Amino acid sequence: MRIYIAGHNGMVGSAILRQLAAKGEHELITATRAQLDLTDQAAVRHFMRTQRPNTVILAAAKVGGIMANDTYPADFIYENLMITCNVIHAAHNVGVQRLLQLGSSCIYPRDAAQPMAEHALLTGPLEPTNEPYAVAKIAGIKLCESYNRQHGTDYRSIMPTNLYGPGDNFHPEHAHVLPSLIDRFHHAAKTEADQVPIWGTGKPRREFLHVDDLASAALFVMQLDRQTYAAETHPMRSHINIGTGRDTSILELARTVAEVVDFKGQIICDPTKPDGAARKLMDVSQINRLGWRANVNLRDGIRATYDWYLAQIDAGSALRAS
Fold it and tell me: Contact, 196 vs 185, CB < 8 A?
C-alpha cells in the first residue's frame, strides 16, 4: 500500500512511522510542514492528486496543555478543523478508501460517567478549557462517519487517552502535563530547588498511554477487516477508545516523575490554578475485545521517556518547542 502519514514529525506520527518502517511492507509517504501546509485546502488537494495514496493516517494536529488551550482557543479550533476537513475531503476526492484519524479523550463530556465509553459522545457539555479543540476532534469523527454513510468509504477514528513518550513537547507552559512535569522536575533537580509547584489541587485523575502503545493500536485498528470493525462499532458511533484502563492522580504522577528524575524537594499544589475535569478514564473494553491491550507500564514509560529527554539534551536538540 501507499500510506500517507499526515503529521509524521509529531510524537504520534513519528511513532506510527517507526513501526510501519520496521515492518517494511508498504510505501510510506510523508511531507514536512514546510513542504505542505495542511490548513491550505488547495495545497492539500494538489498533494493528494500528485501522491495518490490509497491509505491515509491522519495524525497531524495542533496540540497543547491546559494553558495553551485556554490561551489560544481560536488557533486550536481553526487549525484542527482545517487540517481535518482538508485531509479527509482530499483523500475522498482521490479515491482513498481506508483512512484512520486520531482524536482525543477530550471529546467526551466533562461530567461523563467514568470510565468514559464510546456512547458517551455528545451526551453533555464539554470541559471549557479545551472545548474548541474537542469540537474539532468531534467534527473529525462525524466527517469520517458521514463520508462512510454517503460514499461507502472505510474511514475510522481512534480516541487515545493522554499520550507521552519520545518526540513530545517539553515546554513548561505549552506542553501537556506529563512532559511539562518531566521538564520542570529535571531542572529543579539540577538546580537543587527546594520545591516545585504543580497546577491545581493535585486531585484530578488522568490516564496515560505511551505513544508506542498508541502506534501499535493504530496499526491494529487499521488492519482489522471491515466486517470485524463494523461488528464492534456502530455507524453513528464508529470511533474506538485507546488507553490503558488505569488512571492516577496528578499528585501521584508528580511524585513518580520526581522519583524518576531524583528530585528531593517538596511538591506544592497551587489550587488557584484550574484542575480541569475531576477524572478522565477511558473505557477500553471495546478495543480489548478486538484483541489489543496496552503493554507499557507507566513508571517504565516515564523512565524511558526521561532517558530519551536526557539523550536529546546531550545531543543539543531543542526540546521546548512553542
Answer: yes
Grouping H, G, I as helix, E, B as strand and the rest as coil, residue 241 is strand
Alpha-carbon distances of 37 from 41, 45, 77, 150, rounded to whole Å: 9, 11, 16, 28
Residue 253 backbone dihedrals phi, psi, to 5 degrees: -60, -45
Q: Which residue has the cell 517539553?
A: 170
Q: Which residue do the cell numbers 507500564 mark?
A: 297
**Which amino acid belongs to residue 212?**
D
CA distance 216 to 28: 17
Q: What is the pLDDT of residues 101-123, one digit of tens each?
A: 999 999 999 999 999 999 999 99
Contact in structure between 203 and 249 (CB atoms under 8 Å): yes
**Can you say how many angstroms the Cα of residue 241 is from the centroid of all Cα atoms in its chain?**
11
Query: CA-to-CA distance for 264 and 251, rounded, in angstroms?
Result: 15
The CA distance from 173 to 150, in Å, is 42
Q: For residue 182, what are the contacts with CB-CB under 8 A and spacing of at least 6?
A: 170, 257, 260, 261, 302, 305, 306, 309
Q: Which residues of 177-193 are buried (b: 16+ CB within 10 A; e: fewer)?
A: bbbbbbbbbbebbeeee
Catalytic residue among 133, 147, 155, 309: 133
Query: Is 133 annotated in the active site?
Result: yes
Q: 290-316 pLDDT, tens per residue?
A: 999 999 999 999 999 999 999 999 988
pTM of the model: 0.93
